[in-house]
Amino acid sequence: PRSDKALKRAGMDYLEMAALTRHVDWHAFEEWRKADSHRLVLLSTKATTAYTSFSFADGDVLLFGRESAGVPDPVHQAADARLTIPMQGTARSINVALSVAMVVGEAIRQLG
Fold first, then answer.
1. Domain 4-111 is of which CATH architecture?
2. pTM for the complete prediction?
3. pLDDT tens digits for 71-86?
């Protein structure tokens, strides 16, 4: 479970720039997302589309799974797009913080 204290520490001064919404469960999140027409963009080692080949849009919700297990199958199936970070050789994946930085950086580059 995440705590407000941990979130504030991780977000430092940047939380003021973020729009955070805490949903009570997956169903509530899905209702909100669909009502407001937000695409769910999942980053997954199982995906085949590179994040650099994807056209990001305002309102996209980016979802990064746990490093150890990814996301449950129902969440994977609910995604509107599934993207991957191409890896060299036998490397499986990179740490989630670096993944977020790379993908959010690309989305910002595209959207200005």
1. 3-Layer(aba) Sandwich (3.40)
2. 0.85
3. 999 999 999 999 999 9
